[in-house]
Amino acid sequence: MVLVLGLARLAEFHVREDLKAGRLVTVLDDTIVDSEEIHVLYLGREHMPQRVRAFLDFLTPRLREALSAPLPKAPTRDSRSRSVSKEAGTSQAGGHAPMTTFSVARSARSLPLLPEPAMNWKDNLLTDDARIHALLESSRRIAVLGIKSDAEDKKPAHAVPRYLQKHGYDIIPVPVKDVGPTVLGQKPYHSVAEVPGPIDIVEVFRKPEDIGPHVDDLLAKKPRAVWFQLGIRNDAAAEQLARAGIQVVQDRCMKLELSRLTEQQGQHWPSA
User: Fold this and answer.
1) What is the mean pLDDT of the chain?
2) Which of 96, 66, 203, 182 is nearest to 139 (CA)?
3) Residue 97 carries which DSSP code?
4) What domain range is 98 assigned to?
5) Domain assignment of residue 5, yes or no
6) Which of 56, 95, 122, 263 is most buried, with most CB under 10 Å away?
7) What percent of the chain has pLDDT over 70?
8) Residue 184 backbone class (left: φ over 0; alpha: ψ -120 to 50; beta: rest)
């Protein structure tokens, strides 16, 4: 198993085959050091591209869950100081960018453990366009809480998810009243927690005062993000979700944000 510490410049490094699986590889600025045991995952996000941050937001909780069990000790190795070096590569058309040249000589046993940084729950409140658009880019499966029936297709709670579905997203209906056997061709569920499999975003079409009773359901499922549609804001519910590690978007229209994103990219993404 290989874990990476400090991923801000990960794209510049290419770990060679001599760094075998089962050894911890730490990436600290321009330095790679191999250690004997796997201890901790530390994500340095300061200068990451938006898509990398979005990927890590998706990957990090899954890695932490997978690593909750005791980890096997790596194969015994000589703990004497050693040098690890990498020569600069040559950039070629269609190839990798030049690799960084560096050299390290230190004892792997002497490396201090890096504490996992404390998570500020407010970091899960997405308010800037860049992080919101990164969430849309990295998501595919959206449960719609409060979706309307096909007979009410002019209402936003049907028109918005229909637009998202036409642009390639998987829509899972979670209505709050009877909508018939299907909505948008999909089976409806009585609660978010009943939806099988992971959910990227729960889009919420409920009045602010009606969101509170749904919080336990959302916490039980723990999707990657909860999105309160345009005109909907409930700061108390948003804080509960954010403290549980769920990203929250408030008072934004997902259809408009997707339209803005595709316009900025100059392409129809995601394709239907």
Assistant:
1) 73
2) 203
3) P
4) 10-110
5) no
6) 56
7) 54
8) left
